[in-house]
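note to self: dont lose this again. the chain is below, predicted strucutre after it. 679 aa total, dont forget to put it in the shared folder this time
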Amino acid sequence: MTIFPGKTYPLGASIQAGGVNFSLYSKNATLVELLLFNFKDHSKPTEVIRLEPDRHKTFYYWHCFVKGIGHGQLYAYRVFGPYDPENGMRFDGRKVLLDPYAKAVVSDTYDREAAKRTGDNCSHAMKSVVIDTDRYDWEGDEPLQHSFEQTIIYEMHVGGFTKDASSGVPYKWRGTYRGLIEKIPYLQSLGVTAVELLPVQQFDPFDAPTGRLNYWGYSPIAFFAPHNAYAVDQDPIAAVDEFRDMVKALHRANIEVILDVVFNHTGEGDENGPTLSLKGLANRSYYILQNEPRFYKNFSGTGNTLNANHSVVRRMIRDCLRYWTSVMHVDGFRFDLASVLSRDSDGAPLKNPPLLWEIESDPVLASTKLIAEAWDLELYQVGNFIGERWAEWNGPFRDQVRAFIKGDSGHVGALAQRFLASPDLFNTKERNPNRSINFFSCHDGFTLNDLVSYNEKHNEANGENNRDGHNHNLSWNCGVEGPSQDPMIEATRLRQCKNFFSILLLSQGTPMLWMGDEVRRTQLGNNNAYCQDSPISWFDWTALEREKDMLRFVQKLIRFNLSSPYSMEKAFLNSDRTVLRWHGIEATKPDWSDHSRSLALVLSNPEYGHELYIAMNAFWEPLTFELPPPFAFQESAWHLYIDTAKPSPQDIAEEFPGKKLQNGHYTLAPRSVVVLVGK
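---
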């Protein structure tokens, strides 16, 4: 093996002619050791290469070129320098550190506690893997670039989607990227056009209290590496290609891949957490520290906060997004707790955060979907997130639709705004209405079935005495807490589920579904299943037959959304072309009062060939609505397309527009939604 000085760029381990170039940022380090390992037994390094400052350091970058190694080489670092927590420096040369730019990670002997304890943790540390990213054949694959108005997002967990034996996936493939490929026909039959994957960047599964596993994955360790536990043999090298196989297969099915990325914190935690990578490389650069620098500011609720607008961290995040876009072919990103990315090095909100503007204007990312969860532990920016490209998770849609369907008073006016993609929140001149990501449930909180089955959370299985998770769920159990055999209660719950989906898929904005809601997946009242790698969180595939009527209803609604020109409007309604008129029980007289629990509207555009009348009754008694005459087309009449109170298959017509009505009134059953088509 021959060692040369190497270059400062690119960062990470890059394969070049005859060997590998290594480059690492560490501003205050005094000495760096590059460790090389045997793949089969990586308890001790086979080579230790000392990077001396006079030969292997340029400015803040440590680098070398190693001739004679290549793809599959295991490596890690020891970084020496002052251990001075009082001044924010936590160098510890006894700790073996991951490369922040590692493209794959070996973790089969990893022990989180060993990284916390004083002393050498080499045999129990994660190691980085050199990856030749050019070895893969994409067979002409390219990102799909669906417009937001042609997008239905399906939020899902790679492992939980097929881990249950009921999936029918071969045993070794359950809970893997390959397992997901097996179920692509189901996603096609459902009609979704994008999957939004809970974190697949390599995370620390042991970053959870009470001895449980971090199932969701919001504990990132290596931002560039696909999580190797989702590979068939948990092989880190195979994980890179198996992830790309999955992306390629989804693209062939016309389904985009959106990654839920976590750039707001890492799995290293606070001052009591382990030293795994960034903390031992440049703690003061990578994290936002308190005025007393031994402690971390915590805007994420998980112990630490990435210093996202520091120049080095900013570059790492952009490099990472470019890598997943150009090398791994993903179509977009959902940014967890994205408001953190608008904070400066002291944690104060920035009016023009450099990172967010750079992401928005980056030419490599120009065609990707950018979706912000526009809040953090203290900052709420929904409707005020920067730029013109960013879409946002619409939390008010979730909350106010829940409150309306539950039957709470005082929400009709808010519901009208949410139905129109929230023009009261978003700048209607700069934003396409489909940048509002509408949802009524997601990974965090009750599933749809549990929204209509539980008044209270039931998180006892998490081992925290039911203290974790949100207490304000805006749920209603329909009369009995938990499962019920009462046919009346079950009928009400089913109707409420259909009401949620109807409002979601008829509203302006981009709809997002949470995995399994279409077949009423339950978590038994657990609204914080982050640590439940168990049937509580897994998709139960027997529900496809048990809830076939519900599934049919959702499938047809999705197809209607993707075919209706009213769902594909690129401007907020009440434009020059499409006219919106509000109604109530009496035509032309909507009831905006606090005690109102009903609302109706008509959408009309002569170019579309039909009108839509949508009526929503959240009251617990039937209400008869006076129908306005269809006015856009001569001799047109109202046809019944959807009535959530009717049994399947009458709940949604097989053929559009449905059965012709004979009179000018329609009675909505208690807690129901009706759609009529004027044609």
